[in-house]
Here is the input.
Amino acid sequence: MRILLVNGYAEHVDSNGGLNKLLFHTFMNGVRKENEVRVSNIEEYQPIDEVNKFLWADLVFFQFPIYWFQVPGKLKQYLDDVFMYSEFYGSSVHYGDGGMMNDTKYIMSTTWNAPEYAFNNVNEFFEGKNVDDVLFPLYCAFKYCGFKPLVPQKRSLSFHDVVKDPNTQEYVDEIQKFISNSISK
Here is the structure.
């Protein structure tokens, strides 16, 4: 399989990105022995080179932190620069049917300061919403371009409480298990 790995970490005053780098490298090391791998970084890129990487890929993996309940600004800028009309999507009679990346799958891996208990509970901060609810606009952007989730019922991996109470080994184990179950099967 041809896999594009996108490091979506953007420099931030409150974070050195160590955990995101570790998770990114864990995924890369887990897939590169049996697959062709290319790497992208949102801090340094040329849009046309990135377009060609996406067109090449069977699977795109994104690793990024959640900043203020959204993707980092530089990741949003990257997507705006790279997801070009007539390469990723085009016109269609029915809204949302113009995606051109129909053979390409995706998976996202996200880190959150929010603890896991803050989700899926109407009495907690996210008012009963889950991670997929929060990331829904991003999923829609991928769907609009024709991408499909690698695992339809699991569009993202999410790691919680990464500032106050990180469990790094558990996060690494989860990525390795995901690779075993969903990519190296």
About this structure: The domain at 2-182 is CATH 3.40.50.360 (Rossmann fold). The chain has a mean pLDDT of 94. Strands lie at 2-7, 36-41, 59-65, 105-111, 148-149, 156-159. The chain is about 35% helix and 15% strand.
